[in-house]
Amino acid sequence: MKRPTPGKRDAKESRPPERADQALVTLDNVVFSRGERRILNGLTLHAERGRITAIMGGSGSGKTTILNLIGGRIRPDAGRVVVDGLSVPDLDTDDLYALRKRMALLFQTGALFTDLTVFENVAFPIREHTRLPEDLLRTVVLMKLETVGLRGARDLVPSELSGGMARRVALARAIALEPMIIMYDEPFTGLDPISKGVIAKLIQELNQTLGITSIVVSHDVVETCMISDYAYIVGEGRIIGEGTPKELQRSSSAHVRQFMEGLPDGPVPYQHPASDYLKDLLEERSE
Amino acid sequence: MNAIQQLGAGVLNSVERLGRATLFLYDVAAGSGPLFRRFFLVVQQIYAVGVLTLLIIMVSGLFVGMVLGLQGYNTLVRFGAEESLGLLVALSLVRELGPVVTALLFAGRAGSALTAEIGLMKATEQLAGMEMMAVNPITRVIAPRFAGGIIAMPLLAALFSAVGVLGGHIVGVGLLGVDAGAFWSQMQSGVDFRDDIVNGVIKSVAFGVTVTWIAVFEGYDAVPTSEGVATATNRTVVYSSLAVLGIDFILTALTLGEV
Question: pTM for this one?
Answer without folding.
Answer: 0.85
